[in-house]
Amino acid sequence: MAWGQKRANKFDWLVGITWGLVAAGLLVLPPLAGALFSGEPLSQYLSLQPSTLYVEHPPFSWPVFILLSLLILTCILPLFYRLMSVTGGPAPQQFSFPWWGWLGIALITLNWLLAWTDFDTTSDWQRYTFTPLWLGYILLINALTVKRSGSCLLLKQPGKFILLFPASILFWWFFEYLNHFVHNWYYIGPPISTVTRVLTASLSFSTVLPAVMSTVCWMATFSRMNHAYTNYWKLRISCPRLLAILGLTASTLSLFALGAWPDSLYPLVWVSPLIVLLSLQVLAGKQTVFSSMQKGDWRPFSLPALASLQCGFFWEMWNYGAAAPWKYNIPYVDRFHIFEMPLLGYAGYFPFGLECILVASLLDIEVHKGSSTSHTS
Asked: What is the Cα–Cα distance from 25 to 16, expressed in whole angstroms?
């Protein structure tokens, strides 16, 4: 029995490694092939540091703006309408606010002030405020979750929570890789060495997944969220493997097209990787984090999308006054800015949140279960 179990575990490990390699190949290689198809030199896409390059894109276009606005509203309005159409439950038991929550508040306050100050004596430190600022957010949002529910992601799954930090580094470096094709954002600031840039960028990137997933956990303490999305529309899929094959084909081709025609297809940066990973999971015979939607439980879909939008607001707000910010340069829709981000750019946070929870699910992290009856609005 022990031998059979060990053999099964080894087989599962090999399957996991194979799945990861196939996923990496399908995510990384098609954009390079598309760029090669368009005649671009590949060396410019293989940089090991965040983009600091401004690229001239097509100007603002009202027809494109209106068309994308209608498409985005069609996708997100049902989400918000459902949330507004339900009521919350009774007030829950209140728990003590943990001491480390005050540490989070202190980190946010200190680094926010330091990041936005104009004093020359602190300018050398301003570029390093992003990571402690977001560590403060992570501590605070987990403390607020403890206050509402008595526990949080940090306390429930500390080992897996710590793994989110290195996973987040790889996760966001992948999007920096895709940005070398589309050039939708770029970084400015005083010159620093390549090693320093890569190290400080990696530290900043490490906070992305912990921040989003901690926010999902906090949102799951609100009964309005759970009532809205627990008994929702049941998504019936009669031929999941066929749909996965079609989705994998379309998303792989779309990543190829992203490399070949980036100015026209740049929104696929946020959509295609999600479809690739979901399709591979289905074809491998695995349950996905969104499988519960077949039973009407849309929390794994809705909560990460909304949590990502909340984190996105703070990312953009804290970036706006920073000494070494990132800037946006988005074809056709670069107008009506909220902070540095153009209005329609915020739509990218919805699929990005789904990618966050998908990656977290690969680490066996779940934050939405067991919350539907015990919390308030």
From this structure: 14
